[in-house]
Amino acid sequence: MSPDRLPLRPELRGQSPYGAPQLDVAVRLNTNENPYPPPPALAAEVRAQVAAAVATLNRYPDRDAKALRADLAGYLGHHTGHALSADRVWAANGSNEVLQQLLQAFGGPGRRALGFEPTYSMHRLIARGTGTSWVAGSRDPDTFALEPADAVAAVRRHAPDVVFLCSPNNPTATALDLETIAAVYDAASGAASGAASGAASGAASGAASGAASGMVIVDEAYAEFSRRPSAVALLTDRPRLVVTRTMSKAFAFAGARIGYLAADPAVVDALQLVRLPYHLSALTQAAARAALAHAEDTLRTVTALRDERDRLVGELRGVGLRVVDSDANFLLFGRFPDAGAIWRALLERGVLVRDVGLPGWLRVSAGLPVEGDAFLSAVKEVLG
Ligand SMILES: Cc1ncc(COP(=O)(O)O)c(C=O)c1O
Question: What is the distance between the alpha carbons of residues 193 and 191, in angstroms, rounded to a whole number?
């Protein structure tokens, strides 16, 4: 039976769920995973810590995941060069859950979120799932860059309760500089004088709800691959700024489902109001702590993946394709008169990339060099 025949919320009727095809193909370069399996020492440590946690599974886990948050704060401080205390860090089952908790707390019915498309499609879907209305801002249609003036103008015009920035952005792989993020934050705080004039022009219908003082979420799922500094550098004195991260990409730990954020302690307190009790299992917490103890080993693959990304960019440009400058472990390439036909032709050759629904473009993840070779020869064959 179609769910539409159930008493489903009207805004969910006829909608499709998120889903990258999980096909059994030799070369899978469609979900921006890290292709390197966990190193043996890390795998051994995870096994040992999870085995130890099994002994007390009759008890609920630490609801506040204090030890894990301290470890995450330590990692983030080390990686970004900005020390953080554990009360500024929160963790959940993947950064998707962190984002959902943020919208449960700061979005919701009668509120709106702004994102700059094309961007990570889950931002829009989580908005929908939490009853938050979605406002689609745009990017430069050619370079997919987000110009600071355009971003600020959109924030002033729409006075959103939540602004999503994504850096590096999925699927374009473009990253933001700190000046752009700070300018968006100022606009969202109502600190910029134009916020009032935007409301006065009548364009910002929600300004009456005080929406000009919105939260700004910087989704940094791919930060470790970027050449730009992390927005963690901006957290001091910006209580409505949130930086979300994940262990799914650089850490090669997607299967364990751990995402986290750094923000003002008040944001972490706010999320306690919406998180489910004991949301992070004892096994997840143990596995994540074991993996963090081996961060340096895992992060060695980041260098290899950056090199592979740069090689793919060079090779694709070498055959005359356009490639958007990439700060991530994936890249957007095109332009094709019929991207769907190219996607299918690559699949026929055993290579799965992602059709993100952006006319003319396809997205490919940097994988193992041998996978990159297979992808490049399939591309060359398809282009004839
Ligand atoms: C931009 C971005 N944010 C967040 C996520 C979610 O990652 P996870 O829930 O695995 O932490 C992804 C996953 O692809 C992503 O591309």
Answer: 6
Show pLDDT as tens, one digit a residue, over the chain (384 residues).
Answer: 788 889 999 988 988 888 777 788 999 999 999 999 989 999 999 999 999 999 999 999 999 999 999 999 999 999 999 999 999 999 999 999 999 999 999 999 999 999 999 999 999 999 999 999 999 999 999 999 999 999 999 999 999 999 999 999 999 999 999 999 999 999 999 743 333 333 333 334 344 444 449 999 999 999 999 999 999 999 999 999 999 999 999 999 999 999 999 999 999 999 999 999 999 999 999 999 999 999 998 889 999 999 999 999 999 999 999 999 999 999 999 999 999 999 999 999 999 999 999 999 999 999 999 999 999 999 999 998
**Prediction pTM value:** 0.93
Q: What DSSP designation does 298 have?
A: H
Best residue among 98, 119, 122 to mutate for probing ligand 1, ranked by most atoms within 8 Å of CB = 122
Question: What distance in angstroms lies between residue 270's CA and the mean position of ligand 1's atoms?
Answer: 22
DSSP structure string for 327-379? SSSEEEEE--TTHHHHHHHHHHTTEE-B--S-TTEEEEE---HHHHHHHHHHH
Residues with CB under 6 A from ligand 1: 32, 94-96, 120, 166, 170, 219, 221, 246, 248, 254, 259
Residue 217's DSSP bridge partners are 164, 242
